Structures
1.
Amino acid sequence: MLRTVFSAAAEAQHNPLIPGIPDLIWSAVCFIALLVFFWKKILPSVQQNLDARAEVIEGGIKKAEIAQAEAAAALEKYTEQLAEARAEAGTIREQARQDGVKILNELKEQAAAEAARVTASASAQIEAERQSALVSLRAEVGSLAIDLASGVIGQSLSDDAKAASLVDQFLADLEKSENSAKPESVN
Amino acid sequence: MLFAGTYFELNRVMLIRIITTIVIVLVFWLATRNLKIVPGRGQSLIEMGLDFVRVGIAEDLLGKKDGRRFLPILTTFFFMIVAMNLTGAIPGFNIAGTSVIGVPLLLAGVAYFTWIYAGLRKHPGKFLRNALFPPGVPWVLYIIVTPIEVLSTFIVRPITHTLRLLMNMIVGHLLLVLFFLATSFFFFEAPGLFKLFGIGTLAFGFVFTMFELLVAVLQAYVFTILTAVYLQLALADEH
């Protein structure tokens, strides 16, 4: 049996380190066939497929990047618009406040002017009434005094000129005594 | 034997090689017939195998550009050796296509001329000088260094490259033959209780078949990566 083992091992017929020519030829045939097959057929198609895959992946990444950039731009735009709107609102509020102050001031001025006008007209009216009262009082006091005086001195002061001068004299005296301010001196 | 006596004499190993070659072509042709960007199961598997060589060996050692340049040779080496090694553990074939010196010697020779070609092409004139007279060594030492470099780089390297693969496969084959013939002997010819030894030898035969599967892939990887390393050394800027 062992002899069979050795004869099986010796199937290579001679020293296994020395190649037979058919051995080399068939090795070369197989190698060249496989080399050409891998070189010209398999590797190019696989490489092409890999490139296509890389392109798809890169395309996807690029697409995502673009979308992200767009989103960022939109966000920036919205933020900007928001800030603008805020600033505008602030301006409007400030304007309104200023307008309010202005209106208030105007109203105050108007009110003050109106008040001044009312006061002025009132004082003018008072003055006019005082004047008319003074005039009528002077006439009444004049005739009253003449009546009184005629009664006292018993003579008719029919002469108007005399009477007038007398009244005037009287009133001047009256005013003078009034200025020295004693009500009993009037009597 | 077909074509007996001619240079195209076909024995069992040659037939196994041819069948293996046809199987490789069929498998890869069918698997890459309809490549898709999103791969299916079969395509993923094939791509994994091709990527193992492309990324794990070629691009890793040689970089993207040179890796792609020498990828056809490295890919062919790896898949040819793997398939021809595996036939040693496949019932019916029972011998590795690489366990006769033709394939290891041819492939080591191709690797040898490829890396010398690559070196001469990359550093014309300087390649041999740098390989034989390593820069930075005092000139007196060249008396010792240069013969060593000649021997190790240009003579021993292709021989070890060949023999490492060949011997692994021959020894693996002999081990399996020994175990299974012993099993057959113990079961059918040994007397009485000696038959029980057959169980042990059968178990060892099974274990070593598994081991041969590992060795088959490992040796293909080693052979391919060594080729890539030789190329890398030849292409390196500084030797």
Note: Chain B is about 75% helix and 0% strand.
2.
Amino acid sequence: MSTAIVYQPEQRLELPDGQRRLIALTIYLGFAALAVGVINGLAQALSYAHINIFQYYPGMNSYYQGLTVHGVFNAIIFTFAFANGFVTLTMARGLNRKVHSGLLIAAFGSLALGSLLAAFAMFSGRASVLYTFYAPLQAHWTFYLGLVLIVVSTWITSLNLFVTLRSWRREHRGERIPLLAFISVVTYVFWDISSLGIAVETVVFVLPWSLGLVATTDPLMDRTLFWFTGHPIVYFWLLPVYISWYAMIPKQVGGKLFSDSAVRAVFLMFLCIIPIGMHHQYMDPGISSKLKFATAILTFTVFLPSLLTAFSVMYALEIGGRKRGGTGLVGWFFALPWSDPSVAAQVLAMLVFLLGGITGLMNASYSMNIEIHNTTFVPGHFHLTVGTAVALSVMGIAYWLVPYLEHRKLWSRGLAQAQAWIYAAGVLIFARGMISGGLAGMPRRTAIALAPYSEPSWHLAGIITAVGGSLMVIGALLFFLDIGLTVVIGEREEPAEIPFTETIHAPATVGWEVSFDHLRYWIAIAFVLIVVMYGPFVATHIPLASVGVPFKRF
Amino acid sequence: MDRFEKIFFGISVVMLALFLCALFYASAAMHVHVQSSQEVISVKPGGNLAMAVLTTAPFNNPGVKQIGPHDYEVDIIAQAWTFYPSEIKLPAGANVEFKATSVDVTHGFLIPGTLINMMLIPGQVSITHYRFEHAGTYLLLCHEYCGRGHHTMFAKVEVQ
């Protein structure tokens, strides 16, 4: 029996050039989407301070058209493109083998075509239905088909991971799956199950309805299917970043990851606890309070893996900081390699994520949600999480990833460092504005600059939001500048290695922990919970209330 | 698991359990209620939702109704981009039941400064209860995007 492979410093991953280029292209498509989304975001931030600029954007006919672009480009195209590219790479590195080229091409093609279709629908003004596309607001069918193709690209990526893992397993019978590969594949298994809600919603209900094949649709059912996916989707945004925080950041700061098993357990907890999307529907009619309270309890349990992540990652950082000469209770924190922009951006993102987690607990808190549901508190919260914990971490990852993919040096480390601090400062100011406005009942997804009503307490909140949002945009633009110049005129260098950490405790080869790698058990738990949480709703809601007739006044 | 991990895990579980207890207390003892109405608007085959709403009680006669010495019912129809009625007068200290539904798309129903916050979903009736302790003018606004004129959708609640 062979021993487990934790870390193979002697083995470098030599990815074929073609695969490296495709992974780079996929990730750059994501960055391009992020740029489009961020530029549109400026109009939304300024609107809260009663400054209207959306009409100066080419082709933008309404505030909500820009808001749809902001949400779809940032939260779907950017995040999915990055996940597809990055997790494919971490899988290849984890197993030290190349992936399937045909599937890599197919995933990119599906993503690119889907993005083009959705972009066409949004920019032509046929799909100003926002990121949630609640029926009976009805977008052009190209919008829904585009979203379907984007999701299909993640499924093709999953297939690529499975195929690669299977061929590795044939050669390594009886061995534990290496940690990096394990967390990569669990991320996608988790997402495959999570995405079933939105897949059913679009393919079975909304797409046929938008093509005129059926006259009506059921708004509550569509919305429930959306949120089935719409909450776990946030972990699909987050888990690729967790891969970096767990398996790469410790190496970058000179520390070590503490426990192999703890990391696997965290990813499996996310996999098991998928059906918590109903906490986005606490204020909905037609869903029983028992089901809502059960969702609250289950949602609280999913905070555990995030709390464990905070422990493991902070522990790894502390090991690194102390090795670098940091002493005392907090001295190690200041001894971290802050001059490395990849580390600075990601550690700042982690700090911001603490606030994101706290505000997330408030959202999930059943009755407390009455105070904040659909107010600007919610975007205040998720710009701390997806808008920073994810986006700023991805920027930090890009500072080693793009040089790795291009064989070029980062154009400017100084600019990258400044960028991270400006963005982090920006989001803290922005979220302060949005959260205080939300607590005073300032509605989200509303063109405040155009609204005939207002409350005195919203004014200062709106100005703070606009100032912080503008700083975030500046921070993001500096990122695009630095990365763009790296790709085009960065100094050529020898191929670098992917930062990849060692663990203190190696994976067990005997005992119950081996069952972590038997994914089918965990998948079965996930499905049982899904039936428990969604079965009662479906049972009481059927027959469908198909009362939604197409509404296109946007 | 390492000893530190176990301690941290234990603290996390206890903390989350305490938060849940606080929520349970808020629901049970402080009467903070999240709506869970199961009332629906049924549409006959071949009919449409707007007609069904306008012919279903109480939405065939929307407005403020006194149903007891200190009890009022307010029935409101939401339509892109208005609430009907758009001015609601209520006495301070009365127990008020709000019933609302939409005739077209999903709308929101928020009165800042109160515990009134609901989604209005086509085909479903939303219900909540509240007592305005203080006189004043309150804003009732739609907080869910409902098309081009979404930000113009609001009503006023005068509490005297």
Note: Strands of chain B lie at 63-66, 71-79, 82-84, 87-90, 95-102, 107-111, 116-120, 126-131, 136-141, 154-159.
